[in-house]
Amino acid sequence: LCCTMSFPLLFSWITIIIARLDNHAQAISSWSSGMDTYMSESWAVLSRMPQPSCVDIPRNFTLCHGIDYARMRLPNLVDHETLDEAVQQAAPWISLLRLNCHPDTQRFLCSLFAPVCLERAIYPCRSLCEAVKSGCEKRMQMYGFPWPEMLNCNKFPITNDMCIQPHENYQVNKSCTSCNQVGTYENILDHFCRSDLVLKVKLKSVSSNYIVVQKARSIKPRETETNLRQSDVELKLQLTENNENCPCSSAKAHRNKRYLAMAYHGRNGVLVLNLLLPWRKEKVQFKKALKMFRKLDCKTLGTQIRERARRERRKKLRAKAKAAAARLGLKIPNPR
User: Fold this and answer.
1) Residue 250 near residue 180 (C-beta atoms within 8 A)
2) How far apart, in whole angstroms, are the C-alpha atoms of residue 86 and residue 264?
3) Each residue of 252-298: pLDDT tens digit?
4) pLDDT tens per residue, range 23-43
5) CATH 3.40.50.720 fits 185-296, yes or no
6) DSSP secondary structure of 172-190
7) Architecture of 53-171 per CATH?
8) DSSP 232
9) Using 50, 70 and 90 to split pLDDT, how confident is the model at 159?
10) Domain residue extents for the chain
């Protein structure tokens, strides 16, 4: 072919081949440069991503301080990257915890807001989420709190050894919840709104399925109370709707002391105990709840609970700001 091809034509072919090789080399160089830029930018993004770290759960992290462990992982499992953000976003859930709607409420919420400090993240099991949702969702809806999408139970793993499961021992004496209530402001007002009778009483006797009270004085507003004011008549209050046997530990001792008792009318007109607490007016939350009884509008209880939570949050933030300002020698004026 070389012998029969003219020199000008051969030269043209060689020029074309060299040009194509040069273009190919430039393309490879450009691709290589682009990959270098891409990898450089990717590593820069990865280096800016927050790496997991462990911090102490501070005292002002009210929702989770005092739980079974002392250190938590950041970022947490709801994408809060800083401790301040986690504390702030967890604050509205304190009211749900104080409603005492399920024994594992704190365990579930803190597994997300303050996950235990381990090398890898441990999520709550789906069964834990479903148990808390079953106990709390209706109570939340009653006061205008829908179950949020961020707590959608389908997001969590089916129960296995690598997720946080519900406590098993809570199944014991599950039916007798009336005697195992907490004296929080939210829980007392919640039961007040769900009870037909609210009484200050003395206990005469306690059995396995009912209590007998005397010296009962009604403290429910007139429009919803019975004719009971102050009476020596004894009242029998069943401990459960189905008259089941269960221990009432809060009523075993000090039977001559006063108690706050709340009850509702069950089937066949029987009175069923809804809540029993020792009468402890020296307790701040108990005292605040008592003051609210006469002016409480149960239709707006959810709004009142939310507003109280906001006030508490603002108060804490202001105290924190004042402390920081004092360290700098500054003074924050009081709000009018």
Assistant:
1) yes
2) 39
3) 656 578 999 999 999 888 999 999 999 998 999 999 999 999 888 88
4) 655 655 555 565 555 555 544
5) no
6) TTTT--TTS----HHHHHH
7) Orthogonal Bundle (1.10)
8) -
9) confident
10) 53-171, 185-296
182-225: pLDDT as tens digits? 999 999 999 999 999 999 999 988 888 899 998 888 887 654 44
CB-CB contact of 264 with 284 (8 Å):
no
Strand-pair category, 271-278 with 230-231: unpaired
Asked whether the CA dihedral 19, 22, 23, 24 is positive or negative, the reply is: positive
Contacts 24+ apart (CB under 8 A), 306-315: 306/92, 306/95, 306/144, 308/95, 308/185, 309/91, 309/92, 309/94, 309/95, 312/91, 313/88, 313/91
Instruction: Give the pLDDT mean for 139-152.
Output: 88
pTM of the model: 0.68
What is the C-alpha to C-alpha distance for residues 175 and 249, in angstroms, rounded to an integer? 13
Give the residue from 197, 202, 179 showing the smallest Cα distance to 256. Answer: 202
CA distance 145 to 54: 32
